[in-house]
Specification:
This protein is of the alpha+beta class. Helix content is 35%, strand content 22%. A hairpin with a 4-residue loop joins β2 and β3.
């Protein structure tokens, strides 16, 4: 990876649907060369995919909850993670350092849906021993972008 790849990644992080010709114009390269570089970045796993960010209010899923989940048996952690990852409303699953617990982020329509998921799906997982739920009242920043270096040396 070089500084040209870095420039391409910065452009794609701002607007993933930017036309290849526009990327090429911004960095002063031929569109075919830019396309080849993007394909190489995808094949190497640098670019993992492209997603559309939808307005959650338009789909009745504006409530965000973060749930800390304690597991009984750390050796069954991966099994628990797979089950949680299959729940459609769960957007993120993280393993936290220091304790045998997971932190998940989910989006739901409100208290009723949250309670249903907790009662019928999450607490029914065999290895879940305890949960602690935090509900976000407002969201001021939400992004999947990562900080990129200014240049590669």
């Amino acid at each position: 990876m070089d500084n040209i790849d870095l420039q391409i990644l910065k452009i794609l992080q701002k607007k993933a649907r930017v036309p290849n010709v526009e990327v090429a114009r911004n960095i002063g390269m031929a569109p075919s060369a830019v396309l080849e570089r993007i394909k190489k970045l995808e094949n190497r796993g640098v670019v993992e995919g492209y997603e559309v960010r939808l307005n959650p209010d338009m789909f009745d899923c504006s409530m965000i909850a973060f749930i800390q989940i304690k597991v009984k048996t750390p050796s069954k952690l991966i099994e628990t993670v797979k089950i949680l990852s299959d729940i459609e409303q769960i957007q993120e699953v993280h393993y936290l350092a220091g304790e045998d617990c997971l932190m998940i982020k989910l989006r739901v329509s409100g208290n009723t849906e949250l309670e249903t998921i907790l009662r019928t799906k999450i607490t029914n997982i065999e290895d879940v021993s305890d949960t602690k739920t935090h509900i976000a009242l407002s969201t001021y920043k939400e992004s999947a972008k990562i900080r990129l270096p200014e240049t590669f040396e």
